[in-house]
Amino acid sequence: MLSIRNIVKQYATHRALDDVSMEIEHGKIFGLLGPNGAGKTSLIRIINQITAPDNGQIFINGEKLNPSHITQIGYLPEERGLYKKMEIGEQMLYLARLKGMHKEEATRKIKYWFEKMEMQTWWHKKVEDLSKGMQQKVQFVATVVHEPKLIILDEPFSGFDPVNAELITKEILELNKKGATIIFSTHRMESVEQLCDNIALIHKSHKILDGSVKQIKNSYRNNTYQIEYTANGTDFKINDELFELLNQQKLGEGQQITLKLKEGKSSNDVLAYLIPQVHITQMTEVIPSINEIFIQKVTALN
Length: 302
Known about the structure:
This protein is α/β, with parallel strands linked by helices. Helices cover 32% and strands 31% of the residues.
């Protein structure tokens, strides 16, 4: 769907993007991650043709990015941009027309989305009369009303209460199910785990991590396990040749331990060692979350 090749963007003495490349597959939700100032918004602005790269190219479905692609893209910026004193219904019509929609079609689609998002009574309200969360619902509708093939969401949950955040999450998944490709830029790592198929991590203008969420998490597995058990009279003896005990704590009527296997050892080896000594109720591999991987990668490069 989107091929980003060797993008460079320089602002005076600051290089925002330095030879950044990535491939975004059709029909996927792609997480664009990175600390503040990493270069995420610069890349998003280039995709939207708000600014141009100093070097590199972007292709949409094999065609070099050009002004005609604007109608295929929906963009929800982190800094919202609505006209405060304009009636919401008229504002939605104006923005939809800018995306190439006819007035009749735009009116029908806007009313559909207003009902879907529980905004039926908002047509004649003004943006300045709405709360921040209500304004963001309006901007979300403006982003998707023309049914774009590529949807770019920059911190879409900012300012939303849990109920509306869940509503937007549901709509994002539904749009994706209908075939939209979505670029999702956020600091909320729990949202990344919940929504994204693939991610890229940008730090200090460079891409430092790229791949599917599942593959990346699996690559950071380190043979660490949590085991819950109850003792058969006496507790087990630690086997230093089999594992390193990282943590032990009481859990209800039993115990929970966290251990790391020594090189060449397996979970079956641990079970074979522990089962004669304790009654095991649960064993779970500890796989780092995307948030933990994010912190580990960024900290290592600072």
